[in-house]
Amino acid sequence: MAVTDVTARIAQIQSQLAMLAPQSTGSAAAFASSLDQATGTSTSATSGHDVVSEARKYLGVPYVWGGTDPAKGLDCSGLVQLVYKNLGFDLPRVSGDQARAGTAVPGGLSAAQPGDVLAFGSPVHHVGIYLGDGTMIEAPHPGAEVRISEVTEKPTHIRRILPTEAAAAAAGVVSSARIATGTPYAALFTAASHKYGVPAALLSAVAKQESGYDPRAVSPAGAQGLMQLMPGTAKGLGVSNSFDPAQSVDGAARMLRDLTQRFGRTDLALAAYNAGPGAVLKYHGIPPYPETQRYVREVLSQLKAAA
Q1: 54 a catalytic residue
Q2: Angle CA(26)–CA(268)–CA(165) in degrees, nearest 5?
Q3: Which residues of 292-306 are buried (b: 16+ CB within 10 A; e: fewer)?
Q4: What is the C-alpha separation between 303 and 243, in angstroms, rounded?
Q5: Which domains does the chain show, CATH number per domain?
Q6: DSSP reduced 3-state for 185
Q7: Are the C-beta atoms of residues 77 and 63 closer than 8 Å to each other?
Q8: pTM above the 0.90 mark?
């Protein structure tokens, strides 16, 4: 087995183990704060040049496979994760997962901007941070140091971690939306918000879109209850009766919290709620399904109206 195959397999195992890590709960304010970090919306917006400046601090640090501590050494994904962590962005640890973070940049290297993450290989075996003018900062291999290099290999993925206008707008809409007076099941949405940190207005918008606030609704596909949980999904969430509004809202809030933590953005979490996480991973974003695109658009429109 080649070294690159071994590295890719290790990365895959690390990714699977990461998915088993317990998720933390928090307040609605903490949820909004995590959205701000994941999408880059904050009082002091981060630019690509900020990313480049941060990355330059580690020039000369020795390469150490698996390294995440600059005092001891960094590997390629350790460098990328550290740079973005210092700027308030939580990226996955391994290069294969970093190649799915943020949003895809189509058009090749000519469309890349400073601060974008460049990934190489299939499966991905290397990542670096683009500087512009065909150069990047990378931790290349054992025996080398973090350095500036020309991009001589065509990237298989270019990912923009900094927020697009749409992502920033979505985060802003969610954090400012408020649940309307007289909303059905408002007490359940509020209780679930306190438990899982998911804004009550988001839960309300999903319930309205999913079932029209009907706790007895059943979709043609078999989704059930107020939040339209599929039986298998409900079982995995610990929901024994999807037609019980309290259980349905609790399960949906837990699911939306986990999806948002997994994908880092509200619009992607909504897409995964509608079409499944696999579809979001497959298309590296909101899948091109008219139903899913309409679903995300309409839920966010409800939140915008409530903001």
Answers
A1: no
A2: 100
A3: beebbeebbebbbeb
A4: 25
A5: 43-160 (3.90.1720.10), 165-306 (1.10.530.10)
A6: coil
A7: no
A8: no
